[in-house]
UniProtKB/TrEMBL annotation:
The chain crosses the membrane at residues 36-58, 79-100, 112-130, 137-156, 168-188, 209-233, 253-275, 287-306, 312-333. It comes from Sporomusa malonica. It comes from the Bacteria. The keyword Amino-acid biosynthesis does not apply. This is Uncharacterized protein. Keywords: Membrane, Transmembrane, Transmembrane helix.
């Protein structure tokens, strides 16, 4: 229980736009192939990456930025900033622009162009420290997402069809570009830094932090599979998969409430993302917080007009960059430790 409960907590913290929006949307497009795709992205590659990130924290006892600066100097810190932004900016454009913008448009009728800008600007204000009470309320409301999706699946039990196991694990149905894009989400600077920091708290307990990170990623993968399954059995069509299922199952009034909860998930994801983006832009440009937030907001808003397929392809490449950097950091840390022991 000493590892399971923290792992569940870390998994809940990791629920973001990829779990609640990208995977359900792609489930409605690629069908049963989403099961093996999610399994590979989260439970195999994601677990390895999370374990490696936690190992860096356990081994060094420091957070990721301090580790990179100690190993590679100022240039390493700049490379880390670029690698984080290469993943975090496209992910933010998808979560806070593309999906949140469409959700706000459906809830309020505000045109997408202004809805996306409103979400990004609001999250920037929250990231700068304004409206802390509003963010706390959003955090509490977001906790309703898990029971709400559970109720939706329970209401669909009579319509669920048994899917043959060979259809679920068939390799020919895997969407490899989506696997790489989800690896990019898993390698995102916010998550990697959080996992490394979690590992530092277990530095005196051998490799408990590594086991915690791996278990948390497995829990996250299971919940993501659950959301993909909900999108499939709910007969969702289009890119706003979960809101479509909610409208079919719960009716328009309760579906509006569910969409509000889903928007809270996006806000809770975007606020730390905007702070991460601004800090990494500050490393590269030496801008102060507000100019960096403004610049990152403008980049995210512009990226929200790029089509989903192109954005996912971009993230598949940038995610690999971040993954390689984390692997190289772990290798350098291990090599340094081996040299000191000689």
């Amino acid at each position: 229980m000493g590892v399971i409960l923290p792992a569940l907590s870390l998994a809940i913290v990791h629920i973001a736009g990829d779990n609640a929006a990208v995977v359900p949307a792609m489930a409605s497009l690629i069908g049963n192939g989403i099961y093996a795709t999610v399994f590979l992205a989260y439970m195999i590659f994601g677990s390895v990456l999370a374990g490696m990130s936690a190992w860096i924290g356990v081994k060094s006892g420091r957070e990721l930025t301090a580790v990179v600066k100690r190993l590679f100097g100022l240039r390493g810190k700049q490379i880390l900033a670029f690698s984080v932004l290469a993943v975090s900016l496209p992910a933010s454009a998808l979560t806070g622009g593309y999906f949140a913008g469409q959700l706000i448009e459906s809830l309020t009728g505000i045109p997408y162009m202004f809805a996306a800008a409103l979400c990004i600007a609001g999250c920037s204000m929250l990231a700068a420290g304004y409206g802390r009470e509003l963010l706390q309320i959003s955090n509490y409301l977001a906790l309703l997402f898990i029971p709400a999706t559970g109720i939706m699946l329970a209401m669909l039990l009579d319509t669920i069809q048994v899917i043959p196991l060979n259809n679920i694990i068939a390799l020919d149905q895997i969407s490899w570009p989506l696997v790489l894009a989800l690896i990019g989400y898993n390698a995102c600077g916010m998550r990697s830094a959080l996992v490394v920091e979690a590992g530092t708290y277990f530095v005196t307990r051998d490799y408990t932090g590594v086991y915690l990170a791996i278990l948390a990623k497995i829990f996250e993968g299971c919940f993501t599979l659950f959301l993909a399954h909900l999108a499939l059995v709910g007969g969702a069509s289009g890119l706003m998969a979960l809101p479509t299922v909610a409208d079919k199952v719960l009716g328009p009034w309760l579906a509006t409430g569910f969409n509000g909860i889903l928007l809270c998930i996006f806000i809770n994801t975007m606020v730390p993302a905007m702070l991460v983006n601004a800090k990494q832009l500050s490393v590269l440009t030496r801008l102060t917080l507000w100019p960096a937030l403004t610049l990152s907001g403008a980049l995210i808003w512009g990226g929200s007009f790029i089509c989903l397929d192109l954005m996912l392809m971009l993230m598949s490449g940038t995610g690999l960059i971040m993954m390689v950097f984390i692997c190289y950091t772990a290798y350098s840390l291990h090599k340094q430790g081996a040299n000191k022991s000689q």
